[in-house]
């Protein structure tokens, strides 16, 4: 059910770790997962299994500086900001090659005004859904500006767009100059992660912003791949990803009919308790986008799939994916029916 990948990063230095979970039944669609900060793809094995049980092949990679991709956790070395996105895309190409779902086609006879007959072929649509989680939402948005192969988008626990990008960029440049790219800067961490620092008075667990479930917090605290520090260069690159596109550019370029599902915990400080998402929804609704859906979960913090509403969130995710598959197939099924008459 699981298959691992190792492949060269676009930075020509690191080796990327990828993980695929495939169903025993025919593939209904491909779901690509992009993980969060202080995170890694193997945390989502249970989610991937549930997707497989519903017929979906899911896959994702450990980003540079994370999980089994990292030679040293928290170290991100890139020559340009698109290399993180290129690593994500490369895994999709490997998966398509190894797990081909050959689409059905229908020969459709058409007549023009002069009575000439032509034959066209309608191709069965195949779902490529992208699920961004936390910071992975930033990368998912950037991915869609570079590649056009996603036909359903899910943003889970999106942190939104940076409020003070210039101030943060200046702080990164200052730390780089004073301490060097491979150093660690506590003041930079405090600035760039200030939302989670102010969460829950009296909480002693530094991961309390992630989940209200003590069992999940223990797992996070015992997972070395969730407990590390980013270097100054890594923080700089994470910020660069946030600054590749702004809210206005993204909403203006958002495809009119692309299905988008936004899901978030109402107790998540990273999204400023969904306020950052609200501003994004307002912009999307003012654009030409037609298929925007969202749901907020009252009892959950940042790690939605590891909190009190996780079962409901996964159920809603599957419902959204099933609806996407159904909507994509409807025109094809109508043609198929007409062609058989």
TrEMBL record:
Q: What keyword terms does UniProt attach to this protein?
A: Hydrolase
GO molecular function, one example? hydrolase activity
Serine aminopeptidase S33 domain spans which residues? 27-104, 130-309
The coiled-coil regions, if any, are: none
**What SUPFAM superfamilies does UniProt report for this protein, alphabetically?**
alpha/beta-Hydrolases
Q: What InterPro entries does this protein's entry cite?
A: AB_hydrolase_fold (IPR029058), Hydrolase_4 (IPR022742)
Q: What is the name listed in the Swiss-Prot or TrEMBL entry for this protein?
A: Alpha/beta hydrolase
